[in-house]
């Protein structure tokens, strides 16, 4: 059905969305702008004071948990609607056959608008390879999708302001594009698993994508919320809980001594520490905020965040089904080098 053609039946189906969405948006805005007041009220009702460790940690948790979940819900819903306009087959066809530099930039830019953690990005990465998209271009997407997606940017904007978000965006894109270019230039296709290389590169000719009505687009957005937020919220709670503990109880001098900009080894140590962990931007950003509040250098904490969401051990295990170890090791080395650069640059200029 043509999405621009609205029948009487479609109008009846759309009607609940027409009044429900504005109401939900108004409630979202009202709640978001009064989160601090609500947290203050709840802390006071619990008989706690923000002057104490428990009171400050509790306030942090009660304020950041709904803030992050509200941002996630709103952004994921919008992206779910937007993604109905772009079928994966059409996206793969758009990237296949592009010259290396242009394709890398396009793939990295695509990663910004895909709300995937590193493991969630792997299936589309596999689809790119199966469709014949050059290896370096697929890696640009795989790096950009978890590292600089719109959720990370929105949360950074809300937590640290537009300058930090813009610099993070620029450095993240640079890492994704340059790393993809390097991997592409190394001609490492021989390190793809045999079953991937055996797929005929022209087999995935792109058909026309499904046509959606606006009812279906809104339903897709809501389904996106259930699927993604439904998986992410435990990480959000754990991340914010850890962030609250750091914020309320960890001595500032201890964190500054480990992640301060005057300690030359702090950035590589933060990257190494982040690799065994696994979460996404929504789960790690509260920890970043807490570390910053305790005096840690922004570049060091962002390097830690990048390593957690772009070089996680679970992602490497999934990629092992598609890539051989020399290619995985090259991927880790190139991306880790870029993350180190980001950490030192942020510490130098901010």
Could you describe the 3D structure shown?
This protein has 350 residues and is mostly helical. Helices cover 76% and strands 0% of the residues. Helix 3 (53-83) packs antiparallel against helix 8, helix 3 runs antiparallel to helix 11 (214-249) and helix 8 (150-160) runs parallel beside helix 14 (281-293). The N and C termini lie far apart (52 Å). Residues 1-6 and 200-209 have low confidence and may be disordered.
Low-confidence stretches: 1-6, 200-209
Q: Return Rg in Å.
A: 22 Å
Question: Count of DSSP E strands?
Answer: 0
Question: Quick check: average pLDDT?
Answer: 75
Order of helices and strands: HHHHHHHHHHHHHHHHH
H/I helix tally: 17
* Helix content class: over 70%
Question: What characteristics describe this protein?
Answer:
single chain; 350 residues; mainly alpha; 17 helices; globular; disordered N terminus
Short précis:
With 350 residues, the protein is mainly alpha-helical.
SSE topology sketch:
Blueprint: H1 8-33, H2 35-45, H3 53-83, H4 88-95, H5 100-112, H6 118-130, H7 135-147, H8 150-160, H9 162-185, H10 194-197, H11 214-249, H12 252-259, H13 266-274, H14 281-293, H15 298-310, H16 313-319, H17 325-349
Helix pairs in contact: 2-3, 3-8, 3-11, 5-7, 5-9, 6-7, 7-9, 8-9, 8-14, 9-17, 11-14, 13-15, 14-15, 15-17
């Amino acid at each position: 059905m043509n999405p621009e053609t609205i029948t009487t039946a479609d109008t009846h189906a759309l009607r609940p969305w027409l009044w429900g969405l504005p109401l939900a948006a108004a409630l979202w805005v009202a709640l978001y702008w009064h989160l601090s007041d609500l947290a203050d009220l709840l802390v006071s009702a619990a008989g706690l004071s923000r002057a104490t460790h428990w009171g400050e940690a509790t306030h942090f948790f009660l304020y950041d948990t709904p803030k992050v979940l509200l941002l996630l819900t709103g952004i994921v819903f919008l992206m779910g609607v937007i993604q109905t306009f772009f079928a994966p087959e059409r996206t793969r066809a758009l990237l296949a056959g592009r010259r290396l530099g242009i394709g890398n930039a396009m793939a990295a830019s695509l990663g910004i608008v895909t709300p995937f953690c590193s493991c969630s990005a792997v299936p589309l990465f596999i689809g790119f390879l199966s469709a014949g998209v050059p290896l370096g271009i697929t890696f640009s997407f795989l790096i950009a999708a978890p590292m600089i997606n719109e959720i990370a940017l929105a949360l950074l904007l809300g937590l640290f302001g537009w300058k930090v978000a813009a610099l993070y965006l620029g450095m993240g894109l640079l890492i994704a594009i340059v790393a993809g270019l390097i991997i592409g230039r190394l001609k490492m296709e021989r390190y793809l698993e045999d079953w991937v290389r055996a797929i005929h590169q022209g087999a995935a000719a792109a058909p026309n994508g499904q046509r959606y009505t606006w009812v279906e687009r809104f339903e897709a957005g809501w389904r996106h919320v259930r699927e993604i937020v439904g998986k992410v919220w435990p990480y959000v709670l754990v991340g914010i809980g850890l962030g609250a503990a750091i914020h309320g109880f960890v001595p500032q001098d201890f964190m500054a001594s480990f992640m301060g900009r005057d300690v030359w080894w702090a950035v590589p140590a933060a990257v190494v520490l982040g690799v065994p962990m696994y979460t996404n931007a929504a789960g790690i950003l509260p920890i970043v905020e807490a570390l910053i509040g305790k005096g840690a250098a922004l570049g060091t904490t962002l390097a830690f965040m990048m390593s957690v969401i772009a070089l996680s051990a679970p992602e490497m295990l999934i990629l092992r089904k598609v890539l051989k170890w020399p290619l995985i090791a090259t991927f880790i080395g190139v991306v880790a080098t870029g993350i180190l650069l980001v950490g030192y640059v942020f510490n130098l200029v901010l």
